[in-house]
Amino acid sequence: MTDTLQSAPDDTDDFHDDAWSAPDPREDGYVALRSYGAIGDGRTVALIARDGQIDWLPFPSLPSDPVFSGIVDSADGGRVELRPVDDDFEVQRAYVPGTNVLRTRFRTSAGTVEVTDALVTGVAGRLPWGELARRVDGLEGSVEMRWAVVPGNAFGTHPIVRVDTVHGPLLRAADINLALVGFEHGRTDPTEPGDGHPDGPLEFRGAFTTSPGSRSLLCLCGVEDEPLHLPDPHVVDEGIDRTIENWEGWSTEFSWEGPWADAVHRSALALKLLIYSPTGAIAAAATTALPENFTGDKNWDYRFAWVRDLAYTVDALLRFGLREEPHAAVSWMLKALKENGREMHIFLRLDGTVSDGTHETGSEGWRSIGPVYKGNPAGDQLQLGVFADILAVASQYAHGGNLLDESTQDLLAGFADDACRRWQEKDSGMWELPDEQHYVSSKMGCWQAITSALELTELGQMHPTADDKAHWEENRDLIVEWIDEHGWSEERGAYLMHPDSDALDASVLLHAPSGFDRGDRMSRTIDAIRDELGAGPLVFRYSGVDAEEGTFVACAFWLAGALACVGRVDEAVELMDELVVQSNDVGLFTEMISADDGQFLGNMPQGLSHLALVNAAITIDEMRTELGMQPGDRREDAGTDRRTETDDDRQENR
Q: In terms of CB atoms within 10 Å, which end of the chain has fewer, N or C?
């Protein structure tokens, strides 16, 4: 006997009779990365496959060693199962509109059920503990369901033990404690109170049968190195509805009435998942070690806050009219940089400390593509473009009517000086390459950094001496001269990846929106990149990398934005139409997509991919407005020559 629904699911959302399909097949326990939807609570993210299995959940916090990491080790990584007993079932799913709460419907020959998955939030934001709730509503007929919570130790850091406490069993992994509560969930593992000693199976498990109007609930609770709260499962049930309302409330503050609204809104919600609310940091992605190719050795941890990605995210959130998240992220980033030697860092941990390097785990990797790493090797590199990221976002923040404190002004002035001092050095470039070169996009980044510092000066938010200001202006102009002489190839008709090379680099596309070049040279570079790095609507990062990895999702959106910046708005719109449908069924992107078969590759949800989508949509919409175009208009004179040769003309063009 199961509880009766208090409120029936809304049938007016995105479920359709013609949308049923079989779940994605598992091969040795793994499913295609396209199969995953994501939910989160501001502290962690869970990935849920279309068959209802959660294969990734660092619990209770994203930086934690994951106790559920079956996505990178199906045998030992751990999982949370919830599915029909009958293997012959169909599935469709959709987010509750305006939320990161996922609804999945399963249909068997005997009936239909709906599962609502949420990482529950509280009355005033995230809960002090982790709370994964899975609500099962019977819709039609009767469906036998089974479930299991099986934590793992794929990273080799926390052997699982079961402890039978006075309030029933918990599963312990080092300092992480997990307990399960629920109602009408047919639990079958032992639940009797115990004496506190390890005993029993290293899992929670059960089965039940639904009927029309029935409701069952599972709630996995987790804490790390603190007491464990055991909630009333009926309160958790109410908490799911509150979580939906919380997400819907956030979405009402989100302002976007431009084109590709569904894709932009879903991308904004995906970015919101990556904001680590305890500090305000923004993770690059929610996972580690999902491979960038099918052969291995490119499996890195993205659960860190890259200054670059954080800057792009803040820029997008500010353009959407949001307040709290941009301020929290900017404040966290500036404070963290001040506390870590007032030096530029490529990325930081989500708590603001410096990473301790890269560590190989014992996990086999998704579909045995390893190795699986904790950490990322890029932390010690010189990447000159990061100066642009921090100064540009500070300029955008100031343009929004905000004030920079004196300490921040001093920090930014130091970074502007560093850009002037170091732009002539070789670096690892945006792509974090071990081969240091004079990467042209890095020089463009230094130009953007200095230009942003000068903009802040004009706004009265920085106060360099006359000599310092003149020094900035001199180096800004010297960079332009250097790129004209060394970074442009008339023979190739494109900006090069670096001098003395014919290679192309898609990261130069970022410097159409930055204002470095919105004229003929950038337009010709776009054509060269589409011709040589393109794969349909998608784009590889740089010349030759197609032999090593998939196409880089963000690059394709950068190209769309760059097309709009050089006046080729119709082409930009056409490309965006092709790109937004490259997501999976719930609108999410990984870092890369295989050019051969469209498979997802790399970590997910990938912040940079969703950021690129959002910023391309905004840029195209802004350029349409600037050109006086209305929806449906075409610009017949697209691609006109907007670039001239003098620096004065270049500045005007920008």
A: N
Q: Are strands 488-489 and 54-56 parallel, antiparallel or unpaired?
A: unpaired
Q: Which amino acid is at 261?
A: A
- Name the strands in the sheet holding 600-601, side by side, starting at the edge strand that comes first in the sequence: 551-552, 592-593, 600-601
Looking up tokens 């509750």 gives 96
**Distant-in-sequence, close-in-space partners of 567: CB < 8 Å, separation ≥ 6:** 518, 523, 623, 627, 635, 637, 638, 639, 640, 642
> Would you say 445 and 387 are in contact if contact means Cβ atoms under 8 Å apart?
yes
Indicate the range of 9-18, 107-116, 202-211, 517-526 predicted with least confidence.
9-18
Torsion sign, CA atoms 263, 264, 266, 271: positive
Q: In terms of Cα–Cα distance, which of 59, 73, 624, 651 is closest to 366?
A: 73
Could you give the count of Cα atoms lying within 13 Å of 555 in the half-sphere of its Cβ?
A: 27
Which tens digits make up the pLDDT trace of 420-443? 999 999 999 999 999 999 999 999
Q: What is the dihedral of CA 342, 344, 347, 349, to 10 degrees?
A: -10
Measured at the CA of 327, the angle between CA 321 and CA 333, to 5 degrees, comes to 135
Measured between alpha carbons, how far is residue 623 from residues 149, 515, 628 in Å? 50, 13, 8
CA angle 506, 358, 340 (to 5 degrees): 85
Residue showing tokens 């941009």:
326
- Helix, strand, coil percentages for the chain (3-state, nearest 5): 35, 20, 45
- Are residues 568 and 246 in contact, defined by beta-carbon separation less than 8 angstroms? no
Confidence (pLDDT) at 642: 35
Task: Report the pLDDT averaged over residues 564-577.
Answer: 97
Distance CA 480, CA 493 (A): 17
User: 305: which strand partners?
Assistant: 348
| Angstrom distance (rounded) from CA 318 to CA 61 | 26
| Amino acid, res. 398 | A
